[in-house]
Design brief:
eight-stranded mixed β-sheet, single chain, Glycerol-3-phosphate (1)-acyltransferase, 3 domains, alpha/beta, about 60% helix
Length: about 450
C-alpha cells in the first residue's frame, strides 16, 4: 500500500465517522481517462478536498495554498496526495517565479493524463452564494489544452458541487455531485504564450455557470432555511426510518429556491404569509420537543413505534457494555475537540468541521494511548495493546446506540403528544397538511417552471 492510498483510506474512515451519510451522485459523468480538472464550490475548509479525494473515481491532485504544506499533520497529508503549492499575494515569499512553477506543474500533471482538483473561489467561506471566481482555473485549463493541441487528448472540466446538511455539525450529511463535463478548446496564445484575456474571462464565466448547476445557493439564509423546511413537508421520510437520497433532496430544494425567487416577485404578500406560516409551524413543533418529521400520521402508528422501540431495546442489550465504556472513555476527548474547534474557528462555520476533525486526530489517539497505558499497568503489554485495539470499536458502539436512542426518543415524544395531547397533535398534523396543500396550489396556479 502506498502512502497516498493509506492516507485516502484513513481520510475515508474519518469522513464516515464525522458524517452520518456520505453520498456521491453523477459518477457516470466522470471521464474514465484523460486529463481532467474538477472544479468545486468551497464551503467547508479542508473537508472539501477530503470529500473529493475519497469519492472521486480517479486519483486527484490538488492545488493547495502554500502555507498548508508547513502545518503539522496537514502538511504531511497535503504532500502525501501529491498536491501542488500555490502562493497567493498575501503569502510570505510569494513571487512570480513560484506562481509560474505552480502553473507549469499543474499543466504537466494534466498533460500526463492526470486529474487536478481546484476551488476557483480561492478561499473557503460561509456565504450563501459563491464568491467571484479567480481566473487561475481558466488559465491553467487553457494552457494545458494548448500544450495538448493535436494530441487527441482533450482537457475536460468536470463541475462538482458539495452540499452539507449542516457543515459544522458532527454526524450531519454530505453530498458530492458531479455535473456534465465539457471540453476546453485549445486557444491561440500570444507571443508570450498566454491566452487572450477575453478567452480567460469567458471560460471563467462558463465554469461559474457549470458549478451553479450542481450547487445549492440563495441570496439569503432565510431562503435556504425555508427551502429545507418545505422540502421536509413535501418529501417526508418513508417507511422504517428510510430517508430520501441527498441527491433527491438537492433537486427538490433547487426547485423550491427557483420557485421562491419567482414568487417573491409575482406574489410577494402570499409568499410572505406562507413563509411566516411555515416558520410558526416549525417553532411550535420545536417548542413541544417534537421533530416535525415525526408528525406524519401515516407513519405514526403505535404498532410501528412499538416495533422500532423494541429493536432499539434489543440493540441496547447487545451493545450497552461496549457503548457505556466507549462513552465514558471518549466523551472528554469529544468535548475537548469541540471546545478547541469553537475557539479557533471563532464563529466561522466554514472552519468548524476542519478544526473538529484535526482536534479529533490529536485528542482521540492520545485518549487511546493513555487508556492503553493504564490497562498495561494492570494487565501488561497484552492488555495495553488489546485496550488500544478495542477502544475505537467501543466508541463506534456508543455512537450507533446514541443515534438509535435519539430516533426512538423522537418517535416516542410524538406518540406521547398523540396519546396525551391529541387535540394539539391533530392541530399540528392539520397545519402540516394545509401548508403542503397551499404550496402545491400556488405551484399549480402559477405554473412554475421545473416544478
Amino acid at each position: 500500500m502506498t502512502v497516498r492510498s493509506a492516507v485516502t483510506a484513513f481520510t475515508r474512515t474519518l469522513l464516515r465517522v464525522f458524517f452520518r451519510r456520505v453520498e456521491v451522485a453523477g459518477l457516470f459523468r466522470f471521464p474514465k481517462d484523460g486529463p481532467a480538472i474538477v472544479v468545486l464550490n468551497h464551503p467547508n475548509g479542508l473537508v472539501d478536498p477530503a470529500v473529493l479525494l475519497c469519492l472521486s473515481p480517479r486519483s486527484v491532485s490538488f492545488v493547495a495554498k502554500a502555507p498548508l504544506f508547513d502545518m503539522p499533520v496537514v502538511g504531511f497529508l497535503t504532500r502525501a496526495i501529491d498536491s501542488i503549492p500555490v502562493w497567493r499575494r498575501e503569502d510570505d515569499g510569494a513571487a512570480s517565479e513560484k506562481t509560474r512553477k505552480t502553473f507549469s506543474s499543474s499543466c504537466a500533471l494534466l498533460r500526463n493524463g492526470g486529474v487536478l482538483g481546484l476551488f476557483p473561489e480561492g478561499t473557503t467561506h460561509d456565504d450563501t452564494r459563491m464568491k467571484p471566481l479567480k481566473t487561475g482555473t481558466a488559465r491553467i485549463a487553457l494552457a494545458a489544452a494548448s500544450g495538448l493541441a493535436g494530441s487527441g487528448e482533450p482537457v475536460r472540466i468536470v463541475p462538482a458541487g458539495l452540499l452539507f446538511t449542516d457543515k459544522s455539525a458532527f454526524r450531519s450529511s454530505v453530498l458530492l455531485v458531479f455535473g456534465e463535463p465539457f471540453v476546453v478548446e485549445p486557444p491561440e496564445v500570444s507571443e508570450r504564450g498566454t491566452p487572450p484575456p477575453a478567452l480567460v474571462r469567458a471560460l471563467t464565466d462558463r465554469v461559474r455557470e457549470a458549478i451553479d448547476e450542481v450547487t445549492l445557493q440563495a441570496d439569503r439564509d432565510e431562503a435556504l432555511a425555508l427551502a429545507a423546511w418545505v422540502e421536509e413537508l413535501l418529501d417526508p421520510p418513508r417507511g422504517d426510518g428510510e430517508e430520501a437520497s441527498l441527491e433527491r433532496e438537492l433537486g427538490l430544494r433547487r426547485r423550491l429556491l427557483r420557485a421562491y425567487a419567482n414568487l417573491k416577485e409575482a406574489r410577494p404578500k402570499e409568499i410572505s404569509r406562507l413563509a411566516t406560516r411555515v416558520v410558526r409551524y416549525e417553532s411550535l413543533a420545536s417548542a413541544l420537543g417534537v421533530d416535525p418529521k415525526a408528525l406524519d400520521p401515516d407513519r405514526m402508528t403505535p404498532a410501528g413505534i412499538a416495533w422500532n422501540t423494541g429493536k432499539t431495546a434489543l440493540l441496547a442489550l447487545l451493545l450497552a457494555p461496549a457503548a457505556l465504556l466507549g462513552f465514558l472513555v471518549h466523551f472528554p476527548a469529544y468535548t475537548a475537540a469541540g471546545i478547541v474547534a469553537n475557539r479557533y474557528a471563532r464563529g466561522d462555520k466554514s472552519l468548524l468541521a476542519t478544526t473538529k476533525m484535526l482536534g479529533s486526530l490529536i485528542f482521540f489517539p492520545v485518549t487511546w494511548i493513555v487508556a492503553g497505558a493504564l490497562a498495561g499497568t494492570r494487565l501488561g503489554w497484552a492488555g495495553a495493546l488489546a485496550a488500544i485495539a478495542l477502544l475505537p470499536a467501543s466508541g463506534w458502539a456508543a455512537l450507533l446506540l446514541s443515534e438509535r436512542f435519539e430516533r426512538s426518543w423522537a418517535a416516542l415524544r410524538a406518540l406521547g403528544l398523540l396519546l396525551f395531547k391529541k387535540r394539539l397533535y391533530l392541530r399540528l398534523v392539520a397545519e402540516r397538511r394545509a401548508i403542503r396543500e397551499a404550496i402545491v396550489r400556488i405551484a399549480e396556479e402559477t405554473k412554475l417552471p421545473n416544478w
